[in-house]
Write a structure and sequence with these properties.
mainly beta
Length: 46
């Protein structure tokens, strides 16, 4: 499943969901690397 995470204040990464750390951060896999960051929460406007 594709997930988007934020690394730092303005960098986002989208990749395959690998796992989750105990503190709630997500791990995504892109090419040959794993990235850890805060999940981006989807919102819908009506």
């Amino acid at each position: 499943m594709l997930r988007t995470i934020t690394i730092g204040s303005c960098v986002s990464v989208q990749g395959l969901h690998v796992g989750q750390t105990p503190d709630g951060m997500l791990i995504v896999h892109v090419d040959e690397k794993n990235y850890v960051g805060r999940p981006v929460i989807a919102t819908r406007k009506s």
